[in-house]
Give the backbone structure.
Amino acid sequence: MAFDYLLRKECVIQQGRSAMEIMGLSKNRDMLGYFKQNEEDILKKNPGKTWDQVEVTHQQPDGSIVKTTLGEIAAKWNEIEPVADSECANCRLNFRRRPIGCFSAITYPIRAELEQWWMDHFTPPQEAPSVILSFIHDFMNEATGERVDAQRPDELGEQAILESPESCRRALKDVHAWRIINLPDPEEITSSQILELLWDSTSPGRLLLWGFCLEFGAIQASPEDCERVVELMTPRFEDVLPTPNADGGITSNIDIAPGNTLMRRQCGPYNAEDEAEFNAILKRAEFVMRSEEGDAESVWRFKMFLYACWIALATGSSMVADG
């Protein structure tokens, strides 16, 4: 079990295939690599069979579990491997630098060390620009962490997808910066809230990707650029005269109060000028997070996720997540 994520692109590999199919292809490659490395032990456990005949359980793109053989999995991968080798080599979305390197995962159970790392590296509020404080505040209102806590060992035992029975916590109360922007002082933020936001963001928008990268110190950008990003990404509205349709009524995705002569229409957040300005900000920003000696596997996997978020931002790509 894992939190799987994929950067989407209309390329030779992804075109005509669902996100789940692409994820499955990458998992097949990893599976074959693992079994090849442990071929001797596997054949000992399957006497009388060749490596190709060894049976394994395999998850289909629709989520169903089927039995197949290593030979069948290898045959499917061998069909696409030559194309993947050439197409993926110079792809900007290939953050893992390998065939179908636009896919990765944060494995379950979520380690206690990763939850603590989240708390240690979340931007201290007193150092954050006001717009980021607003981002944190809105995020804490939406994500309580209760659904995540229900997946901890005390509740599910061996089926838990988190290692620690308790969430890590970080006190935020009495921070002067919160009062400057007239937000009520939250007492704390928890690692369960962060994970819940990850779960709910199956197709995170560019503002959310930006927030993730910024909050964990993965990118550096000026406070002015941070403020401007949110302005560019926030939906804007304009007043327009309603236009009757063929039936004499008014077609609108916004309710119009009786007697109103104007209605509000969303005209943002994006147009060509906004896109150009946002891309200019991205060029000024810098991805500064690096893997460090001594990083636990769970930590470097999360750093890879932040790097994938950055690639999605820089290329205007979408991210699809599952898990």
Residues 236-268 form one domain. The chain is about 45% helix and 15% strand. The chain has three domains: 2-107, 202-234+269-323, 236-268.
